[in-house]
Amino acid sequence: MGRKGALATTMAMIVVLSTGLAGGQVGVGGGTGTGFLWWGDHEPIYIYGDEDFTVENGVMSGCGTPEDPYVIEGWRIDAPRADYGIYIDHTDAHFVIRDCVIERARIAGVYFNCVENGVVERTQIGRSDTAIHFLSSDRNVVRDTVIFCCNYGVVMAGVSSANLIARNSFIDNGLHALDSMRRNAWCDGATGNYWSDFESVDCDGNGIYDWPNYRYGDPCPLVSPPVEWTGVSAAGPSFAGNWVAPDGSLVVTSQTPIQLTAADAGSGLSEIQYAIDCGAWTRYTGPITFPGPDGPRRLDYFGIDNLGNAERRTTAFFFVDNHPPITTHEVGDPQHLSGETLWVTSKTPIALIRLQESTYGCARTFFRVDDRGWQEYSGPFVLYAHDGPHCISYYSRNASGVTEEIRSFMIYKDDAAPSTRGAQPSSIELSVGDSAEPTPEPEPEPEPEPEPEPEPEPEPEPEPEPEPEPEPEPEPELQTPSETLDSDAPIEEDGDVPAGSDEEPESVQTPSETE
After folding, report:
1. Element at 273 (helix H, strand E)
2. How far apart are the C-alpha atoms of 404 and 357, rounded to whole Å?
3. Whether pLDDT at 4 is above 50
4. Tell me, what DSSP letter sits at residue 474?
5. 196, 216 in Cβ contact below 8 A?
6. What is the DSSP code string of 177-215?
7. How far apart are CA 244 and CA 101, in angstroms?
8. pLDDT 10s digits, 161-195
9. CA quadruple 423, 429, 435, 438: dihedral positive or negative?
10. How many DSSP H helices and E strands does the chain contain?
């Protein structure tokens, strides 16, 4: 009776932190700086096989190893028309579902089918038929999680074994757990779970009932919930993806309104007091903002009813980030742009340049080539891949956790040298030592076809021989004077000797010679 009365007093007044984001914060175990926070709304997630742990499926970091598991973090999945919130199917990579809010799934908020090495932590799962359903899944963990208002809480089906369920709050479920084979652990050795329908005694006051909860196989049931659920509502415009800082702080800008609301079922609310960064307490009159530079902020607040009853102080942590990251890329030489196609080689440097980042902390940039894993960028890189088209994707993330949209561009790699047609192959061969495989001789070039012989020219017909000229008639012989002395022929007066005479003519003296 005493426990129920204390719980009613604690729950009589609930201060709800409501911000301009789609998500909010829920305290974990009364600590400060820890809580359920979400990045923004996400569609139901289905992952089949280890290769489906991608950014598109809500994975924010990790590479699937025990030291660096895949992390599905900070999503709010409200799935009234979907069968499942998050469905993991046939995987054995290490992964964590963390700081998520999953509600109103028709079959199961989280469903593990043949899954190993999974962890669900600091998550709210409620208002679904089943919160978490294990089917033939082994060696998984559920811890620090709220499971509320479901027909079934955690169901172990098939041959599910060696799963650990500890430090969780089971609140107002029809049947909190079903593990008929009892092959799973519901206590981590010293701490079990809180079951809203179980009550015993705690004589030593250590917060653990002295009697086990035999119905659910929990030897160390808790007296009070280790994780509390608090409703959060939206109020105002959202900001850049609704991010959550790695330390669990809610990321806002200097323009994001933060609203505090309270309810009291008794005398009614009198006022809400708040303090920023451990400063003076101030009466709340309207939405709060955080002016000033980028960096962490702290908000403390509590409510007071009309009878002077004060609520326990609550602390929320924020991270102001007014400079979401912006990244671009730069491709060095050698390169060649042909139309819209950018050609590079394996020696071409590719640089990623942050044009804007938060003024607080250190931003980080990540990239991947095609469907390979994400790598952190540390400087210009070259493309080690086959020739042809490749898709390079990249994004940057501030220290606050604010992450820009993934950017991608296509690039074409060509390391092949050109081949000149018509070149004569070399006829020189070089051989050193014995070769296991003889070098094939180059095929001889085909001999050119002989040119056709020209047709023989026809021999010219011989010209007809000229007819012999007729011999001239012999001239009549001249008679000598001796032959004509006795003849009657007269003698020429000039005294010329007729041609053909052998006798020389007698000399005739001229007058010059006779003088």
Report:
1. strand 269-276
2. 10
3. no
4. P
5. no
6. EE-TT--SBSS-SS---EETT-----TT-SSB-SS-BTT
7. 13
8. 999 999 999 999 999 999 999 999 999 989 999 99
9. positive
10. 3, 36
Q: Is 145 helix (H, G, I), strand (E, B) or coil?
A: coil
Q: pTM higher than 0.70 for the full model?
A: no
Taken in order 214, 217, 218, 219, the sign of the CA dihedral is positive
- For 34, 52, 116, 368, 401, the CA distances from 67, given in Å and listed in that order, are 22, 19, 15, 21, 21
Q: Which residues pair with 141 in a beta bridge?
A: 119, 164
Confidence of residue 442 (pLDDT cuts 50, 70, 90): low
> In this predicted model, what pLDDT tens digit does every residue of 421-440 receive, in sequence order?
655 555 555 556 655 555 55
Q: What are residue 151's phi and psi, to 5 degrees? A: -65, -40
Name the pairing type of β-strands 282-283 and 269-276.
antiparallel
177 in Cβ contact with 151 (< 8 Å)? no
482 by DSSP, 3-state: which? helix
Alpha-carbon distance 222 to 169, whole Å? 9
Q: Which pair of tokens denotes residue 209?
A: 């009932």
Q: 139's torsion region: left (phi>0), alpha (psi -120 to 50) or beta? A: left
Query: Which helix H or strand E contains 157, and what residues bound it?
Result: strand 152-157
pLDDT of residue 269: 82
Q: Hey, what are 483's tokens?
A: 């032959």
